[in-house]
Amino acid sequence: MAKLGSIILFALLVSIGCGDKQSTNQAVSSEVPPKELNADFVGVDIGWIVARTGKLFHTDSGGAEWRQLSTNISGTLKQVDFIDTKRGWAINDLGEVWQSNDGGGTWNRSAKFNIPTGRLLSIQFVDELHGWVLSNISIWRTEDGGINWDICDPITTNPQRIEALLFKSYFLNAEYGIVGAGSGAIYITHDGGKTWTAKRIASKEATIECVFLVDEHTGWAGGVPGDLYRTDDGCRTWRHQSLPTTIVEPVICSVYFIDKYEGWLAGFENESVKDNSGEFTLHTLDGGNEWQQSSTAPPEQYYHFIYFSDRSNGWALTRDDTDYSTAVYRTTDGGQTWQKSLSLD
């Protein structure tokens, strides 16, 4: 348990990778603005954007028009996750979970977690009953739509005894999920989070900040440094996949596949070599063996989220840490061209 204590302390102090890792129970001052911009989409045209200020925006027209939703969520809204056009869940900076039945217009608080860092990283539901909330050191799961939550502990309960901070989770269904972590590790569950196994797929210096599963066999993981790994046997083994050599010291922030062959990847070049033009979006048609870099992606400092509802329609989120502006881009031709849909200062 002493090692876990050091991990908790590290979570309080460190800030790395594609998102800001600060934690607070109060609004962050304008001198140190938060960097997050989170999104969720249902189908081709419907989406929600959580701005770094906690404001919630909604579109049902594919981004042609956006409207701000006035929420009753206390604290600062951090992320939303919807399973359809009406039913969704949200987390804030107070360690609380909220639930909506009207597309985000009104919310009811369903839970509050007391965690040492005071910070929830993400929330995901795969249906109306099964959902998970992630922090740097814990996972909570619900099987009744958020009424009751049970804590999961992949860090200290995995038989491999690999202990690392948690950064990103992805659940394919109510049973199968993975969590990207520090020390080049991932955690895998096949029973909804009741039990976990661990595997180190990269060096101990690596942080796995993005994970994605397309089916029960195939998935991807990447992060800092910018190494991408693929599994074809349900996370038992992983193989390295190379990115274009024109990208120097990449940081992988987001990966999304619509099947085991076609997918997209977003990230940026490391600060040490970047001159405010080091962002990139990549596209593959062979499962990640070869990637093509988009030459038409708008110049932004960071691309940190990418999503496609089908092979034509997709979204990308960007941020610029020089002026703390953020933006949402939309493509209808598979990423060949991008149009700015929403700008947020």
Q: Terminal Cα separation, in Å?
A: 43 Å
Question: What is the CATH homologous superfamily assignment?
Answer: YVTN repeat-like/Quinoprotein amine dehydrogenase
Q: Give the DSSP E fraction (strand runs of 2 or more residues).
A: 35-45%
Number of strands: 28
Tell me the number of structural domains. Answer: 1
What is the string of helix and strand elements? HEEEEEEEEEEEEHEEEEEEEEEEEEEEEE
CATH topology: Methylamine Dehydrogenase, Chain H
Structure description:
5% of the residues lie in helices and 41% in strands. The chain has 345 residues and is mainly β. It has a single domain (2-344), classed as YVTN repeat-like/Quinoprotein amine dehydrogenase (Methylamine Dehydrogenase, Chain H). A 4-stranded antiparallel sheet has the order 1-2-3-4, with no helix packed on it. Strands 5-6-7-8 form a 4-stranded antiparallel sheet, with no helix packed on it.
Task: Summarize it.
With 345 residues, the protein is mainly beta.
Describe how the helices and strands are arranged:
Blueprint: H1 2-13, E1 38-42, E2 46-50, E3 56-59, E4 67-69, E5 77-82, E6 88-92, E7 96-100, E8 108-112, E9 122-125, E10 131-134, E11 139-142, E12 150-152, H2 154-157, E13 166-171, E14 177-181, E15 185-189, E16 197-200, E17 207-213, E18 219-224, E19 228-231, E20 239-241, E21 250-257, E22 263-269, E23 279-284, E24 292-293, E25 302-308, E26 314-320, E27 325-331, E28 339-344
Antiparallel strand pairs: 1-2, 2-3, 3-4, 5-6, 6-7, 7-8, 9-10, 10-11, 11-12, 13-14, 14-15, 15-16, 17-18, 18-19, 19-20, 21-22, 22-23, 23-24, 25-26, 26-27, 27-28
